[in-house]
Amino acid sequence: MKILNLYAGIGGNRKLWGDEHEVTAIENNPEIAKIYMEKFPKDFVIITDAHEYLLHNYMNFDFIWSSPPCPTHSKVRKQLAMKKKDGKTFMQNEPVFPDMKLYQEIIFLDNYFKGKWVVENVTPFYEPLIEPQKIGRHCFWSNFKIDKIKLKGGTHMNTIAGMQKHKGFDISNYKIKHRKDTILRNCVLPELGLHILNCALQNE
């Protein structure tokens, strides 16, 4: 298949896909894209805005995976935007509008794309506007059924070393500005990424 991997990060979802498919990965952070390129040298990596790339290139692929940024939807982001006891200042972040690109992509793919697609995000602090399939801390919107899967115990908020072991990525030797714990936390568990790809193939 020709696969489009949007908001690719360092490739957590893609890690166990193997090399039988033609994968195009889109990542807008050059430092993170460099790590992806070294981990998956056979993939075609483009450093650009994934949302715009999807709009203009969706028709060139058989399977599309999209993992739009989740911070404005997350429960943690909301908790850190709650007011302190003085009622005036916030714990860490001021409230922000949720980034609705998530739902733009779901609606767009559901109506225009003829292949298999999945959009992944964290479980939001509000009731999802479009009902997803839920696995662990993830929400998945797709045009195929995703079977239940039992995932290995969570180390999502673990140390960098713990997350590297849990997700199978060693990025300790990379000197980058971006926070390594955030990069690893954003990785979809490789076993889950493979499971979802297999479900898409079974539903063809």
| CATH architecture classification | 3-Layer(aba) Sandwich
Find the count of extended strands (DSSP E, 2+ residues): 7
CATH topology: Rossmann fold
Order of helices and strands: EEHEHEHHEEEHHH
- CATH class reads Alpha Beta
Work out the count of structural domains.
1
**Mean of pLDDT:** 89
Write the layout of secondary structure elements.
Blueprint: E1 2-6, E2 22-26, H1 30-39, E3 44-46, H2 50-57, E4 63-66, H3 75-79, H4 101-112, E5 116-122, E6 133-135, E7 138-142, H5 160-167, H6 180-185, H7 190-202
Parallel strand pairs: 1-2, 1-4, 2-3, 4-5
Antiparallel strand pairs: 5-7, 6-7
Explain the overall architecture.
The protein has 204 residues and is an alpha/beta fold. The protein has a single domain, classed as Rossmann fold, CATH 3.40.50. Helices cover 30% and strands 16% of the residues. The protein is built from seven helices and seven strands. It has helices at 30-39, 50-57, 75-79, 101-112, 160-167, 180-185, 190-202; strands at residues 2-6, 22-26, 44-46, 63-66, 116-122, 133-135, 138-142. It has a seven-stranded mixed beta sheet, with helices on both faces. It is globular and about 55 Å long. The termini are close together.
